[in-house]
Amino acid sequence: MVSDGAELKQESLWCSCGSLLVNRHGRCAGCERRRRLSLERFGGLREAALLRDRYRCRHCRTRDDLLVHHRRPGVNVLRLLITLCRRCHSRVHNTLRPQYEFPALLLTLWRESHPGVAEQQVFPWDDIAEVRDFAAQLTLFAIHLESASVVRQAEVDFAPQCA
Questions:
Q1: What residues does each domain of the chain span?
Q2: Total-model pTM
Q3: Three-class DSSP category at 92
Q4: How many other C-beta atoms lie within 10 A of the C-beta of residue 87?
Q5: Is 7 left (phi over 0), alpha (psi -120 to 50) or beta?
């Protein structure tokens, strides 16, 4: 019998992640560590950020190997936390200079993480036809330079020699 006001609490044999080894709080060691790190590093907002982003990377939409990225280091505000997979997170932190096809979201995060660092310049062409036209012009110019060089060399080779 249970006295008034007392509640029965059943001990869990399984963690919510499916692990059999649980502690007194009903969590496995991995889930307990993630919870503790979330409290220490994210002010308890890590799970909220993952839930808001539906447990997907905000860039590539994968569900594998997710991390929560601080848009401003040390500031634990939900709107400044973003879910990224390990690959996208690595691209943000380990890229020295973003290349011409760097995705817009990752470029924004890269700029926030690397203030004042120069970026690679991108040609302002909107379509591939402009790129092809420019490449054709460069080829023609190179051919012109090469033929001019050949003509100059021929002039030198066949110039009348004074005796």
A1: 14-40, 45-113
A2: 0.56
A3: helix
A4: 13
A5: beta
Whole-angstrom distance, CA of residue 66 vs CA of residue 86: 6
Name residue, tokens 């092809």. Answer: 132
Q: What residues does 67 pair with on adjacent strands?
A: 84
Q: How far apart are CA 84 and CA 90, in angstroms?
A: 9
Two structure tokens written together for 73: 């280091």
Q: Are the C-beta atoms of 110 and 99 separated by less than 8 Å? A: no
The per-residue pLDDT string of the chain (163 residues; one tens digit each, 9 = 90 and over) reads 455 555 544 456 777 777 777 777 778 888 888 888 888 888 888 889 999 999 999 999 999 989 999 998 888 899 999 999 999 999 898 887 777 677 889 888 988 888 888 776 555 556 667 767 777 777 777 777 676 665 566 555 555 555 5
Whole-number Å distance between alpha carbons of 99 and 30: 37
Task: List the Cα angle 120/81/75 in 5-degree steps.
Answer: 95
Query: With contact defined as beta carbons under 8 Å apart, do 143 and 136 qualify?
Result: no
φ, ψ dihedrals at 80, nearest 5°? -100, 10
Residue appearing with tokens 């080829």 = 139
Hey, what are 66's tokens? 């997710």
Place of tokens 């460069």: 138
